[in-house]
Amino acid sequence: MGWLYKHDPIDDPVAYLTDQYNHDGEHRTYRVLAAARVANTVYMAVKITEKITGNSYVLAAVILISNTRKNGFGYKDMDECMGPCKCACPDRIMRLLSPIADIPNPSYAAEWRAGVAAHKKAAAELRTKRASLQPGSIVTLEREVSFRDGTTAAAFRMRFVRRKTPIFEPVDRPGYWCRLRAASLAAATITHTDATAIAAQAGG
Prior knowledge:
Layout: E1 4-6, H1 13-21, E2 23-24, E3 28-38, E4 41-50, E5 56-68, E6 72-79, H2 91-94, H3 109-132, E7 138-146, E8 152-162, E9 165-170, H4 182-186, E10 189-191, H5 196-203
Antiparallel strand pairs: 1-6, 2-3, 3-4, 4-5, 5-6, 7-8, 7-10, 8-9
C-alpha cells in the first residue's frame, strides 16, 4: 500500500491512526489494544476477530508517518506479515501479539519479530558501549567517516559529554570536536586509556 495524505498536519498521529484502525469490516472486526510512536513510526497491537467463527488473533501494525506543515500528515501502513523494515517495536506491543502459529498466513511475521529482537539486542549493546565511554577512551570505527569540511578519520578520542552526547576528536587532529552517529559507534571498538590528563583538560 502506498502513502495516504491529509492536507494539514495533525496534533496526535497515534490517536488518529488508532481511530482509523478501530473498525468493523464485512468479515472481521479490528480493535487496537495498544499503540506507541517511535520516531516516525507508529507500532500497534491490533486484535482481529473473524465474524463467522469468532476466532481472533493479534497482529502488529507498522505505520510509517510524515507530519509536516509543508506536506500535511501522511502515513503508509503495513502489518508484520508484510515484512516491514522498521523494527523498533516496544516490548509492551510485542507482548500482546499472538504466537506465529495462531496467525493465518503469517508470511514474513517470524522474520520481522526476529528483526525486532535483533534491534533490541543491538540497542542494549549500544547503551552498554556508551555507558563504558569515559574521557580518554579511544574509539576505532570499522571504516573512516567523513565530515562536511572534508575531514576524515577512523580513530577518535572521547573528550567529554555535552547534553548527554559524547564529544570526540580525531586522534590525529586534536581540537577538532565532533559527534559520532549511533550506527558508527555501535560497530566500533573501544579502548579505555588513562583518562586523567584528558579529564583535566575537559574540565579546564
